[in-house]
Amino acid sequence: MFSKQMGLGPVSRRNFMLGTAGVAASGLAMPAWARGESLTHAAQGPGEVSGERIALTVDNHHFGVGGRKGHAIAVNGTVPGPLVRLREGQNVRIDVTNNLAEDTSIHWHGLLLPFQFDGVPGVSFPGIKPGETFTYEFPIRQSGTYWWHSHSGLQEQIGHYGPLVIESAEPDPRYDRDYVVLLSEFTPRHPHEIARLLKVGEHYFNYQMQSATEGDMPADERLMWGGMRMNPRDISDVTGATYTFLLNGHGPMDGLEYLFTPGERVRLRIINGSAMTFFNIRIPGVPMTVIAADGMDVSPVEVDEFQIGTAETYDVIVTPPAGSHALVAEAMDRSGMGLASLTSHRGHRATPPPLREPVTLTMADMGMGSMDGASGGAMSHDAHGGMDHSGMNHGGDAMAGMDHRSMDHSMRDTSKLPPDVKVGPGLDMVSPMPMDRMDYPGLGLDTVPHRVLRYTDLKAARMNPHRMPTRSMEIHLTGNMERYMWSFDGRKFSAVTDDPIRFAYDERVRVKLVNDTMMAHPIHLHGHFFELVNGAGMMNQPLKHTVIVQPGSTATFDVTANEPGDWAFHCHLLYHMHAGMMQTVTVRPFPAPEDAA
Amino acid sequence: MRLRTVLAAPLLLGAAPAAAQDHSGHGDHSANDQEEAQPQADSETEDHSRHQQAPAPFKLADMTGAPAMDHSMHQVGDLPSGPPPPEAFEGPQHAADEIYGEAAMAEARATNHATHGDMKTGTLMVERLEARLGEGEDGWLWDVQGWYGGDIDKFVVKSEGEGEIGGDLEDAEVQALWGHAIGPFFDLQAGVRLDLEPETRSHLVLGVQGLAPYMWHVDGALFLSDRGDITARIEGEYDQKITQRLILQPRVELELAAQEIPERGIGAGLTKIEPGLRLRCEIAREFAPYVGVEYEAKLGETADLAREEGEDAAGFKLLAGIRAWF
Predict the structure, then answer these.
(1) pLDDT higher than 80, residue B301
(2) pLDDT tens digits, one per residue of A288-325
(3) Mean pLDDT of A187-212
(4) B244 to chain A, minimum CA–CA distance in Å?
(5) pTM of the model
(6) Cβ neighbours of B112 in A, within 8 Å
(7) Does B121 sit within 8 Å of A214, measured CB to CB?
(8) Inter-chain touch B90–A588, beta carbons under 8 Å
(9) Nearest Cβ partner of A580 from B20, B110, B117?
(10) Which pLDDT value is given to residue A350?
């Protein structure tokens, strides 16, 4: 039915060797953790495992790509780890052996499973000790495109992740070829060092700041941003300054190829398995039909580009004309790109488009509503059933006459916060007028001339059960850019592990996320799918496991809490989670032991 | 008088967020306390069916009639936002304890605290290490600061001093401070300062350090010496990027004294002002050589005292140095 081509051809191997040779010139010191150990090089690109019994082994390795080389954690000897290919309805038993000197874990991202196999140390299981083998065992209750990754420390940054594809129980006639496109980053820096630099170095990785010679923001607006002690070019914390952006483990110079025969319908399973990067995905000249989001089928929608947040997945179908087409994964901040060729001629590389101009934040990203009508102001009220309209019209009107000088005073009006939000040094702003931006295509994509996917375009392909939420809750995404503190409701995870977010079993709750920061956060709930309240109508709200909450904005979802247990709930930007932007969601009561599957 | 006015500015900057924080602390509503009491009571018992008899501590609005509504018009504000139903508090405190054991899970949770918010880190920054070339004497100067700690509390060390090139050390001091975040952008710093040159003298230190509006890095401190003298120092600096790696840094330092300190040639009031301009090139973020110019002027009584000693009260200096950190 479908064939598979991972692009591990002779071309990529040659570039890999060139990359290794280039490292000597970069003068990087051998990190302490690598001294005294003889490590083998991890293979670039995933292998594949499938069946009822799967064995995965986690080891230290070296990895190199595009002149950058360093320590990596590889699973079964590859970065990314192997594609786990399963079938809906099967049972699976996965033995994970830890050969590291520290604890490890694997979390099955997007899978519905008993919570004790969800793989989050300290929340759902104790973790896997060095030398130990842990067995995950669960039935496969779904199909679609997912991924897996370590939930221990910062291991995910250095290679401990891989794709996961579940074929549907019914034949799927929508495509002729099936490819995995797993996006990620590689950095030679140790992730603990990156975490430290984010704490102690101001905008350490950002080489796209506005300067006297760069950026076209007028002086009075620059003053206003300065007055608020905020940086309008704060798009990504970690950038192409240290990252090489990867597709299936291959850097942009590796010449990764996806082959097709003209006329074929090619399914691309695009997974954002990066630690910190949102990507803009496009194949210039080739329209993409989105057929699934986060593994769940949606009504087909044709676009020319879409932004994929960290941990999201989108499946698209393309029918490219003969030739070589660039599959471009441009980092949201435009500091680099991942690249492959979608080609009907083996060995022909497509010419990539140049990186576009860096992105600058606007009033809307401060939670000021929309000044220019590019996003919120252009909304059709009819299309937004679940939104609070009352705040919306005021957005543009109130802002139009606002004096910039008064603005910094209103940027931390803590009286706008609910009483359960802890106000302290960890909270540097409060969105004054946060609006739902489900129709926003993503930072930097609101002004491109072609069709870009928006959350409002997503409609569940299969009807959801018709049920009203019985309760609403509001969770604030809080942070302090200057101190690099991140939290929910002003409390870091380390402060709230004994005070989880509580749902009653089978309770349906409407959760509104309010982003009181100027960064976009991909918020992920383990073990469940929630429905985006995006105006699709309650029975066609798309199911997702991760939702991007735009800067200074809100995003709302309905969740039916029908998976008992403790589940992680966090920002999927790795260093935000590491800084504390995480919570436990608990769904109770647990089934009595005799009822348990 | 003047001293108080000038000092008030940075102190207030830090104090305002601190005050806001205190008031908001009252936000922990009492409903939460009730919720917290509930799971402890329930976790005592293993019998999950018990919750059905347990009295509900709150009442949910009756939503059973709701499905008749037109859902497309539904708004978040229409739904009750109260606490979860009582069964959400059933069972043990942590779900995984029953499967993997409390001890194993407690250990994993402790690791979680360290890796999800309680990270400790530190840095050592050589803010200025420079040669200062002026009329007559050529000097050199260091200004180093380091810290270690978490988001809220830090141990801070500072050291600065200067001397003549090829000659004696003229000034040298070390500070050991406890830094405590009092707002999003400011830390309160308290501790001790030890002068090594020109003579050994100790001080108590109370100051604030942080980022003022318009991106000025501000460091202001009051010093009470072991002889009862009160002095103060305020530094402010701003980084203007010319390109991504070329940075122009205006910097100003003010020194003040509440009284005369004749043995150190210091008069009362504003004693010294040092505005400067440094242009640095960040070869790496951590390593940036710079050149600059600084004007140094003793003021008021202090200037008179200097002139009496036959010194220049003011003058320009050309600077060349390195900013580096680890």
Answers:
(1) yes
(2) 999 999 999 999 999 999 999 999 999 999 999 999 99
(3) 93
(4) 6
(5) 0.85
(6) 121-123, 493-494, 497
(7) no
(8) yes
(9) B117
(10) 95
Does A59 contact B at CB distance below 8 Å? no
Q: Looking at this protein, which amino acid is placed at residue B21?
A: Q
Name the one residue in this structure whose structure tokens are 């569940």.
A460
State how beta strands A553-561 and A435-436 pair. parallel
pLDDT of amino acid B114: 86
Indicate the average pLDDT of chain B.
80
- Residue-wise pLDDT tens digits, A407-443: 555 788 888 888 889 999 999 999 989 999 999 999 9
Q: Is the pLDDT of residue A372 over 60?
A: no
Nearest-CA neighbor of A483 among B150, B175, B265, B39?
A: B150
Query: Is residue A94 over pLDDT 90?
Result: yes
B276-279: long-range contacts, CB 8 A cutoff, minimum separation 24: B276/B250, B276/B251, B276/B252, B276/B319, B277/B248, B277/B249, B277/B250, B277/B251, B278/B248, B278/B249, B278/B251, B278/B319, B278/B321, B279/B242, B279/B246, B279/B247, B279/B248, B279/B249
Number of H helices, E strands in chain A: 6, 34
Cis previous bond, B198, omega within 30: yes
What's the pLDDT band for A528 if we cut at 50, 70, 90?
very high
β-strands A78-79, A43-44 pairing: parallel
Q: How far is B98 from chain A (nearest CA, A)?
A: 10
Q: Does residue B256 sit in helix, strand or coil?
A: strand
Alpha-carbon distance of A454 to A451, in angstroms, equals 9
How are beta strands A313-318 and A133-139 bridged, if at all? unpaired
**A–B interface: beta-carbon pairs under 8 A:** 248
Reduce the secondary structure of A436-467 to three states and give it as a string.
ECCCCCCCCCCCCCCCECCHHHCCECCCCCCC
How far is CA B120 from each of CA A158, A195, B126, rounded to the nearest angstrom? 21, 10, 21
User: Which of B112, B121, B126, B247 should one mutate to test binding to chain A, selecting the residue with the greatest count of A CBs within 10 A?
Assistant: B112
Taking residues A321-343, what's their average pLDDT?
97
Is the CB of A482 less than 8 angstroms away from the CB of B82?
no
Q: Report pLDDT for B75.
A: 52
Smallest CA–CA distance, residue B241 to chain A, in Å, is: 5
Write out chain A residues lying below 8 Å of B100, CB-based.
116, 125-126
- Unique residue bearing structure tokens 């029953």: B98
Would you say the ipTM is above 0.95? no
Residue A128 carries which DSSP code?
Answer: B
The A161-167 sheet, strands edge to edge: A48-50, A83-87, A161-167, A144-149, A107-109
* pLDDT for the residue A371: 46
Q: Is B117 in contact with A493 (Cβ distance < 8 A)?
A: yes
Chain A residues whose CB is inside 8 A of the B241 CB are: 209-212
Is A107 within 8 Å of chain B by CB? no
Alpha-carbon distance of A336 to A284, in angstroms, equals 17
Q: Which chain A residue shows the shortest CA-CA distance from B108?
A: A122
**Residues A532-577: pLDDT tens digits?**
999 998 899 999 999 999 999 999 999 999 999 999 999 999 999 9
Average pLDDT over residues A89-118: 97
Residue B37 pLDDT > 60: no
Task: State which residue of chain A sits closest to B78, comparing Cα positions.
Answer: A472
Contact: B87, A588; criterion CB under 8 Å = yes
Contact B91 A589 (CB under 8 A): yes
Say if the Cβ atoms of A494 and B118 lie within 8 Å: yes
Which regions of A533-577 does DSSP assign to beta strands (E)? 543-544, 546-549, 553-561, 565-571
Compare CB distances from A495 to B84, B98, B117 and report the shortest one's residue.
Answer: B117
The whole-number pLDDT of residue A495 equals: 84
- Does the beta carbon of A588 lie under 8 angstroms from any beta carbon of chain B? yes
